Amino acid sequence: MQPATAARVDQFWDDGYLVLDGFFSPEECDVMKERMALIVEEMDVPPHCRTEFSTEQEEQLKAQGSADYFMTSGDKIRFFFEKGVFDKNGDFLVPKERSLNKVGHALHALDAVFKNVTHSPHVQELVRKLGLMEPVVVQSMYIFKQPGIGGEVTPHQDATFLHTEPMGKVMGLWIALEDATLDNGCLWFIPGSHKRGVTRRMVRTPEGSMPRTEFIGEERQFDEEEFKPAAVRKGGLVLIHGEVVHRSAKNTSDSSRHAYAFHIMESRNGKWGKENWLQPTAELPFPPLYI
User: Fold this and answer.
1) What are phi and psi of 31, to 5 degrees?
2) CA distance 130 to 164
3) Residue 98 host element (H or E)
4) Whole-angstrom distance, CA of residue 66 vs CA of residue 192
């Protein structure tokens, strides 16, 4: 495992992201992949819940924000699909295991394998080195980045969707379960962009409104030359500041790019945004990371 030395921790706070190679073993990655294969094999999703996932703003509002299936997924394990994988009747055009964009958003709490990974001792040790005192887990997801059809994730900041008061309390931990390369859609970052603030937020609209969410503010325009790739081998972990700008390209290769990711919030002197799409529930309050 590549150690998170004091110098590397400083690098994270300076750049807004950090790649740690070999954080998990190949065998640990295979356990997560095998568990997700079973979850997908057993999934039975009604056609009206077969929501295609998108990061384009207008499509987000229509396909995600307006869907109860998405809005109530924070304490459940639910399935979100790539574009063009269903026919007009809602039947699969591809094998169902090749149809998914992601599975989320409570794997960390409802599945034993992903719960153990999320709360693993080396994750806790890393987060302690970052100085977090009372981190809680707010959401988790398994990302497939399917070969040939794995969709582009446009430039964004996680804090647009996971807002805290004050800002700077959210970070993501992204685990490569397969090699993430330039060809299959690895992450790209703008180093230092977390220091520029957040100009756009996705917020809930009043109860009964359609769509269920709206965007406030406008995303900045970013220079393509500012982005730096973060290719990482299987088992590597990418630490992501909630305000750093990042993206990934469409996967046009013949190799998938599976990843398990979860977000944490420092709850000491920090509050979760009441207008966020994702809200803790009585059934699942945000669990503490240190257990």
Assistant:
1) -60, -45
2) 18
3) none
4) 33
